[in-house]
Amino acid sequence: MTTSREDLGKDSMNDSGNEVVQERKTVDALSASDDPGRRHIGEGGLNLKPSGRMPALTSLEQRSGGDQTVGQFSVEDAVFSCRDVNVFYGSKHALKNVNIDVARKQVLAMIGPSGCGKSTFLRCLNRMNDTIPGARVTGSIKLDGSDIQAKGQDVVQLRARVGMVFQKPNPFPKSIYDNVAYGPRIHGITRSRADLDDIVCTSLQRAGLWDEVKDRLNRPGTGLSGGQQQRLCIARAIAIQPEVILMDEPCSALDPIATARVEDLIEVLRESYAIVIVTHSMQQAARVSQRTAYFHMGELIEVGETDRVFTNPRHRLTEDYITGRFG
Amino acid sequence: MNRRTIRKITNGLALCMSGLATAIGLFCLGAILWTLISRGVAGMSIALFTQNTPPPGGTGGILNAIYGSVVMTLIGILIGAPIGMLAGTYLAEYGRASRLSSVIRFVNDVLLSAPSIIVGLFIYELLVVRMGHFSALAGAVALAVIAIPVTVRTTEDMLNLVPQGMKDASTAMGAYPWRTITSIIYPAARSGIVTGLLLAVARISGETAPLLFTVLNNQFWSTNLRAPMANLPVVIFQFALSPYKNWQQLAWSGALLVTLAILILSITARVVVSALNPAGGKQR
Known about the structure:
The complex is a heterodimer. Helices cover 38% and strands 21% of the residues of chain A. By secondary structure, chain A is of the alpha/beta class. Residues 1-66 of chain A have low confidence and may be disordered. Chain B has helices at residues 3-40, 46-50, 63-94, 99-113, 116-131, 136-161, 164-172, 177-205, 209-212, 232-241, 245-276. Chain B is mainly alpha-helical. Chain B is built from eleven helices and no strands. In chain B, α1 (3-40) crosses α11. The interface between A and B is medium-sized, with 31 and 22 residues.
């Protein structure tokens, strides 16, 4: 990477002053012992001591109203609107009656313990569950008002509008240029080479990768470092101008510096796209998102403004999870 | 005796047994190669490659047999490879979990291990009887039938080696499966597929039984695909069983030639793997 550590720190402070403030508030509320000026990268942020109790099951039984999600699940300017979404993998009921909206130009973070259904839900939004044999999705998932589950829905068109970034960076075994040009080519977005060059250049610039790769666009994308590969995958996803970008733990395979770069990138991308991000890092959710949804055993337990969820969780399970008592 | 001693002895015993087994295998291979070379080299001459099979006692080579083998192997692989590759693609991608796939996979495995003489009989019934005579075409089809299950298996295995994440990435970009297969999966599995094809060529170029029932043999030069054609395996079979010294010598030389050709193909396959995998075989 050509950018030094100092540059990175400066950039993120300048670009996202409010983010730091927000994070400080969050962390203060949760753990008074933490140095508020520190920027938390990776898993080192919260120093909370588990109380030793495992409240998961008893709390679930204590919940009143069964399937009621705590918090405000609908928003005014929704790009995705999901109602009563259920997912079955064979006989396994992986997602239960989920109601949630995804707002335009906002980041929605989905947190929860492993196997809680957050990735499953993410894969409903671009119908990637179709590729899993035995998977069945019911309920209504509307993108700009039209049901993406409908029979006439063209999956290819849907996926052109809803891009995805995966947990493990997965560049194609092609050149950096061809990786980014793949989407525009398969969707026939442009015919002229000059336009394509332009799209590739802009996408790489927006993904913050251009300066690092502009001299070696013809080299294989697999030769880049992990963090660069993930930004290449983001460039590839935004090259077809989607409306929504889904990110499935995009930083879990990256080191703290690469993570910081991707998080800064998410902050920038939010100006143009709706972003849904699955993450295991609560600090990351607090840093990058405006709304947070907490999943537990296939149910959406609580959803709301990120600030509110982290400082004042209303549901017992949410509180237990974000304070580190379990999960 | 304590536990540790028992473990040591068991380990030593297992090591000895596997070492012995390896030695026996290598010895057989070495013995075969040595016999072939020592007997075959004597007959290696320009005439071997420039003259047709001679009558008993005369002089000659095996040019017509070499030509016949090359032609039939090529036609066989040209027919068999596309069918095998497409079927393998279906198994690995389109029909990954379908019931039909598991049936096809099972039948393919049966075909893979079926005695090749059965394939010869099958083509004999199907083509030779209907055409009324032996022909090179029937031989090529028989070889294709043998090449198909090999190609199906290697193609499926190689496509399965391509990381699922890479396929998902293409699908999530909105690519139709066929686009994903041709632009992403085939290039990623290229070296493996090419190796599989070369090994299929090696496999069918040494087959004798199916050719006995389909092309038979020809003492003379022939390029007619609708007529019997000379070919190495059957020439070796015939000449080796004959009482004539010159024929026996040609059979040894022919056998050496076939073995060398297969050896070269296998080595080429290995070289291709490393040459087409610029990332240093990262896929493995």
